[in-house]
Amino acid sequence: MNMTLSRSGLLRSGLTGLAAVALLAAAPAAFAQTQTLKATLTAASQVPPNASKGTGALTGTYNAATKKLTWSVTYTGLSGPPTAAHFHGPADAKANAGVVVPQKDGLASPMKGEATLTDAQAADLLAGKWYFNVHTEANKGGEIRGQVLK
Protein backbone atom coordinates (compact mmCIF):
# COMPACT_ATOMS: atom_id res chain seq x y z
CA MET A 1 0.00 0.00 0.00
CA ASN A 2 1.41 3.38 -1.00
CA MET A 3 1.28 5.74 2.00
CA THR A 4 2.50 8.87 0.23
CA LEU A 5 0.16 11.64 -0.89
CA SER A 6 0.99 13.59 -3.97
CA ARG A 7 1.18 17.36 -3.71
CA SER A 8 -1.99 17.71 -5.80
CA GLY A 9 -3.81 15.18 -3.62
CA LEU A 10 -2.74 17.02 -0.49
CA LEU A 11 -3.79 20.35 -2.01
CA ARG A 12 -7.21 18.96 -3.01
CA SER A 13 -7.70 17.53 0.45
CA GLY A 14 -6.76 20.82 2.09
CA LEU A 15 -9.05 22.86 -0.18
CA THR A 16 -11.96 20.51 0.46
CA GLY A 17 -11.43 20.92 4.20
CA LEU A 18 -11.29 24.70 3.91
CA ALA A 19 -14.48 24.77 1.85
CA ALA A 20 -16.28 22.68 4.46
CA VAL A 21 -15.11 24.96 7.27
CA ALA A 22 -16.21 28.05 5.30
CA LEU A 23 -19.69 26.59 4.77
CA LEU A 24 -20.05 25.72 8.44
CA ALA A 25 -18.89 29.18 9.48
CA ALA A 26 -21.34 30.89 7.10
CA ALA A 27 -24.37 28.86 8.22
CA PRO A 28 -24.76 30.51 11.66
CA ALA A 29 -24.25 33.95 10.11
CA ALA A 30 -27.03 33.35 7.58
CA PHE A 31 -29.30 31.97 10.29
CA ALA A 32 -28.58 34.98 12.54
CA GLN A 33 -29.67 37.29 9.73
CA THR A 34 -33.25 35.96 9.93
CA GLN A 35 -35.35 36.87 12.98
CA THR A 36 -38.64 35.18 13.83
CA LEU A 37 -41.40 37.54 14.98
CA LYS A 38 -44.77 37.06 16.66
CA ALA A 39 -47.67 38.98 18.17
CA THR A 40 -50.88 38.01 19.97
CA LEU A 41 -53.70 40.32 18.89
CA THR A 42 -56.43 41.14 21.43
CA ALA A 43 -58.99 43.87 22.06
CA ALA A 44 -57.45 44.48 25.51
CA SER A 45 -54.17 45.47 23.80
CA GLN A 46 -55.84 48.28 21.84
CA VAL A 47 -55.20 51.81 23.14
CA PRO A 48 -57.82 52.40 24.45
CA PRO A 49 -59.07 48.81 24.93
CA ASN A 50 -62.47 47.78 23.57
CA ALA A 51 -64.98 45.00 24.34
CA SER A 52 -64.44 42.89 21.19
CA LYS A 53 -64.27 39.11 21.54
CA GLY A 54 -61.90 39.03 18.55
CA THR A 55 -58.44 37.52 18.76
CA GLY A 56 -55.59 37.01 16.35
CA ALA A 57 -51.99 35.97 15.90
CA LEU A 58 -49.15 37.26 13.76
CA THR A 59 -46.13 35.23 12.77
CA GLY A 60 -43.36 36.67 10.65
CA THR A 61 -39.72 36.80 9.73
CA TYR A 62 -37.28 39.58 9.04
CA ASN A 63 -34.23 38.86 6.89
CA ALA A 64 -31.46 41.37 7.58
CA ALA A 65 -29.56 40.49 4.41
CA THR A 66 -32.49 41.27 2.10
CA LYS A 67 -34.24 43.69 4.51
CA LYS A 68 -37.47 41.81 3.78
CA LEU A 69 -40.26 41.44 6.33
CA THR A 70 -42.81 38.68 5.63
CA TRP A 71 -45.88 37.95 7.75
CA SER A 72 -49.08 36.00 8.17
CA VAL A 73 -51.97 37.06 10.41
CA THR A 74 -54.93 34.93 11.44
CA TYR A 75 -57.95 36.22 13.35
CA THR A 76 -61.37 35.12 14.56
CA GLY A 77 -64.39 36.58 16.34
CA LEU A 78 -64.22 40.14 15.01
CA SER A 79 -67.33 42.33 15.19
CA GLY A 80 -67.41 42.45 11.39
CA PRO A 81 -65.14 42.17 8.38
CA PRO A 82 -61.81 44.00 8.59
CA THR A 83 -61.69 47.40 6.95
CA ALA A 84 -57.90 47.83 7.30
CA ALA A 85 -54.86 46.24 8.92
CA HIS A 86 -51.27 47.40 9.29
CA PHE A 87 -48.06 47.72 11.26
CA HIS A 88 -47.71 50.89 13.34
CA GLY A 89 -44.66 52.36 15.02
CA PRO A 90 -42.58 53.33 16.72
CA ALA A 91 -44.56 52.90 19.94
CA ASP A 92 -44.55 50.85 23.10
CA ALA A 93 -47.51 48.67 24.05
CA LYS A 94 -49.37 51.53 25.80
CA ALA A 95 -49.03 54.15 23.04
CA ASN A 96 -50.36 54.71 19.53
CA ALA A 97 -48.33 55.56 16.44
CA GLY A 98 -48.78 56.09 12.72
CA VAL A 99 -48.96 53.43 10.04
CA VAL A 100 -45.55 52.15 8.94
CA VAL A 101 -46.46 49.22 6.66
CA PRO A 102 -50.01 48.62 5.42
CA GLN A 103 -51.57 45.23 4.70
CA LYS A 104 -51.94 45.31 0.90
CA ASP A 105 -52.67 41.73 -0.12
CA GLY A 106 -56.23 41.30 1.17
CA LEU A 107 -57.84 41.29 4.59
CA ALA A 108 -59.27 37.75 4.76
CA SER A 109 -57.74 35.45 7.37
CA PRO A 110 -55.01 34.44 6.93
CA MET A 111 -53.59 37.77 5.78
CA LYS A 112 -50.17 37.49 4.21
CA GLY A 113 -47.75 40.18 3.17
CA GLU A 114 -44.21 41.32 2.68
CA ALA A 115 -42.32 44.59 2.62
CA THR A 116 -38.75 45.79 2.28
CA LEU A 117 -37.77 47.90 5.30
CA THR A 118 -35.37 50.77 5.77
CA ASP A 119 -32.60 50.37 8.34
CA ALA A 120 -34.48 52.67 10.75
CA GLN A 121 -37.71 50.69 10.34
CA ALA A 122 -35.88 47.41 10.91
CA ALA A 123 -34.24 48.78 14.06
CA ASP A 124 -37.63 49.82 15.49
CA LEU A 125 -39.24 46.51 14.53
CA LEU A 126 -36.50 44.41 16.12
CA ALA A 127 -36.53 46.61 19.23
CA GLY A 128 -40.21 45.70 19.80
CA LYS A 129 -41.48 49.19 18.86
CA TRP A 130 -44.00 48.06 16.23
CA TYR A 131 -47.51 46.71 16.67
CA PHE A 132 -50.01 45.21 14.25
CA ASN A 133 -53.71 45.91 14.40
CA VAL A 134 -56.89 45.06 12.56
CA HIS A 135 -59.64 47.67 12.11
CA THR A 136 -63.38 47.09 11.62
CA GLU A 137 -66.36 49.36 10.99
CA ALA A 138 -67.40 49.06 14.67
CA ASN A 139 -63.83 49.75 15.87
CA LYS A 140 -62.42 52.29 13.45
CA GLY A 141 -59.33 52.93 15.61
CA GLY A 142 -58.57 49.21 15.72
CA GLU A 143 -60.38 46.16 17.06
CA ILE A 144 -57.44 43.90 17.92
CA ARG A 145 -53.78 44.70 18.39
CA GLY A 146 -50.53 43.03 19.33
CA GLN A 147 -46.97 44.20 19.94
CA VAL A 148 -44.55 42.52 17.52
CA LEU A 149 -41.74 40.77 19.40
CA LYS A 150 -38.77 38.53 18.57
List keywords for this structure.
2 helices, globular, 2 domains, alpha+beta
Characterise the protein shown here.
With 150 residues, this protein is α+β, with helices and mostly antiparallel strands. It has 2 domains: 1-32, no CATH class; 33-147. The protein is built from 2 helices and 8 strands. The protein has helices spanning 7-32, 119-126; strands at residues 34-42, 55-63, 68-76, 82-88, 99-102, 111-116, 131-136, 144-147. The strands form 2 sheets. Strands 1-2-3-6 form a 4-stranded antiparallel beta sheet. A hairpin with a 7-residue loop joins strand 7 and strand 8 (144-147). It is globular.
Outline of the structure:
The protein has helices at 7-32, 119-126; strands spanning 34-42, 55-63, 68-76, 82-88, 99-102, 111-116, 131-136, 144-147.
Order of helices and strands: HEEEEEEHEE
Largest sheet features: 4 strands, antiparallel
Distance between the termini: 58 Å
Choose one word for the global shape.
globular
Q: Strand order of the main beta sheet, please?
A: 1-2-3-6
* Alpha-beta content class: alpha+beta
Q: Number of folding domains?
A: 2
The count of β-strands is 8
Radius of gyration using CA atoms only: 23 Å
Low-confidence sequence ranges: 13-27
